[in-house]
Amino acid sequence: MVVANGAFYTSEDQFAKLSNIYTDIVYTAKRQLIVHIQGNIWTKGNKFNIVNDWRYYAYPQKTYGLGGTSSLDKFANQNFKYLRLYQTVLRTIAPSLYAGIGYGFDYHWDITGTAQNPDGDSTVIASINSYDHLSKSISSGISGNLLYDNRLNSINASGGSYANIVFRQNFSGLGNNSWQSLLIDLRHYIPFPKTSENVFAFWSYNWLTLNGDPPYLDLPSTGWDTYGNTGEGYIQGRFRSKNLLFLEAEYRFKLMNNGLLGGVVFANAQTVTDWPSNQFKTIAPAVGLGARLKFNKYSRTNIAIDYGIGLGGSSGIFVNLGEVF
User: Fold this and answer.
1) DSSP string, 129-178
2) Cα–Cα distance between 270 and 279 in angstroms, integer?
């Protein structure tokens, strides 16, 4: 693993927001190659916010089909390569309020392991193939973005609120088919006790398909948000469908006065619509705790190590550079 994290201010204004750039190259024990280049840049006076998410994956994974009733012992082995190019530019329209446009490009190719997979579960494979069985897929679209963010530090917020609403229109002329999605990402942070650096943090992440049929690998899914953090307690991709709702609450606290070591306790719940009924029928809760080790005192970046437990024997250790949200 090679990781680089940079944080900086573009002006000396006391209200300047912290900009950050994150890159990594990771090769996992599951033979997954992951490359990220992600940036969140604020210009002088917080006038413009420039956001990019570029990534490349060579990615073997387990996939569990569609809906909210999947189980750990029923899966198909899947392999694909993935290129993502997202770019967004927003401009301030009121204090802490921004509007802008973006472009999103998702390209999956060399998708194998679901059409003919003797090692996979037949019901999972049938579920996937009833939706699509593409060997490659392209989603390409324009987004309209509305952002409210009065946090000064997005890496480790000590207070404030964040709301990001993204409507994306994908076009059949530029991709496999035409479809529309809506993302509503809401976060709130409350210092508790008020004079301390301990924080209650709340997160609501809602990923909806408004119209059309996204390719299987572009469907809303556990752990496939921007930073891969939804659904701690469940393996990435455990639940997948056309609509996903997610809630999480955390309490973050210092264990050492100098902030070198801290802790967190959390609880979350998620639900996806069943396929093909497209109705919400099940809820998957999880709980957990974690440790925080200060990585960058200047930006207040922590190494986050969490252990989460979900239903049906689901559990896992989740590691991040920076807070989960």
Assistant:
1) HHH---S-EEEEEEEEEEEEE--S-SSS-SSEEEEEEEEEEE-TTTSSS-
2) 14
Count how many domains the chain has.
1
Confidence at residue 5, expressed as pLDDT on a 0 to 100 scale: 78
> Do strands 76-94 and 48-63 pair parallel, antiparallel, or not at all (unpaired)?
antiparallel
Question: Which domain CATH number covers 257?
Answer: 2.40.160.50
C-alpha to C-alpha distance for 45 and 52, rounded to whole angstroms: 20
Helix (H, G, I), strand (E, B) or coil at 128: helix
Residue-number span of the structural domain to which 291 is assigned = 2-321
For residue 276, what are the CA distances in angstroms to 63, 211, 213, 273? Answer: 18, 14, 12, 9
pLDDT class of 302 with cuts at 50, 70, 90: very high
The 3-state DSSP class for residue 305 equals strand
- Predicted TM-score of the model (pTM): 0.92
Cis previous bond, 60, omega within 30: no
Would you tell me how many other CB atoms lie within 10 Å of the CB of residue 179?
Answer: 22
> For residue 310, which of 222, 212, 183 has the smallest C-alpha distance?
222
